[in-house]
Design brief:
Layout: H1 8-18, H2 23-34, H3 44-60, H4 65-77, H5 81-84, E1 90-95, E2 98-105, E3 108-111, E4 114-116, H6 119-127, H7 133-136, E5 154-155, E6 162-165
Antiparallel strand pairs: 1-2, 1-6, 2-3, 3-4, 5-6
Helix pairs in contact: 1-3, 2-3
Length: 171
């Protein structure tokens, strides 16, 4: 028996209809498509995108094994900047005329005798405002989500205000 395959135009129209749905209607549509209640924290935009993805997956098929394997590999190897920094790496950042030195520790990041769970927590303590820690310390470029530098050391930026290096032997 041959399985009925929906027309791409019909799926496209259904996805276009999602754009006009209110938040509550999207949550109801999620229950229809996924068979369960949507997570409470999902935004309207994310609900819409995930429903559209699922509709396309059901109509045209999901990813092949090779693609799934490739994506899982990317997810496994592209962890946070914390996972890519080696223990005892020293990050140096000059901010508003002062030099700040942070050391990668087994349980976080050491700065001024305190251990912080993330670079973002250190950046927040330094600046008093919310910052992406990896961006503040120059480990990622603006508008980037993955590390763009090796974990063997980072030197220089456009204004030369930061660098990361391996621990010095004389410390």
């Amino acid at each position: 028996m041959q399985r009925h395959r929906p027309e791409p135009a019909a799926i496209e129209a259904e996805i276009a209809r999602l754009r006009s749905l209110a938040f509550d209607a999207l949550r109801r549509q999620w229950r229809v498509v996924f068979g369960r209640t949507p997570p409470a924290a999902l935004s309207k935009d994310l609900l819409r995108r995930m429903i559209a993805w699922r509709m396309q997956e059901q109509a045209f098929g999901g990813l092949d094994r090779e693609s799934v394997s490739f994506l899982e590999g990317l997810a496994h190897h592209c962890g946070s900047a914390r996972r890519q920094l080696k223990l005892d790496t020293v990050l140096v950042r000059e901010y508003r005329g002062e030099r700040y030195t942070v050391t990668v520790a087994p349980d976080g990041f050491d700065w001024q005798g305190a251990t912080y769970p993330s670079l973002s927590a250190v950046a927040r303590a330094i600046t008093g405002t919310a910052w992406s820690g990896p961006r503040f310390f120059g480990l990622v470029r603006p508008n980037s989500t993955t590390s763009t530098r090796s974990n063997k050391g980072v030197r220089g930026s456009r204004n030369g205000s930061w660098r990361a290096s391996r621990p010095r032997a004389d410390v």
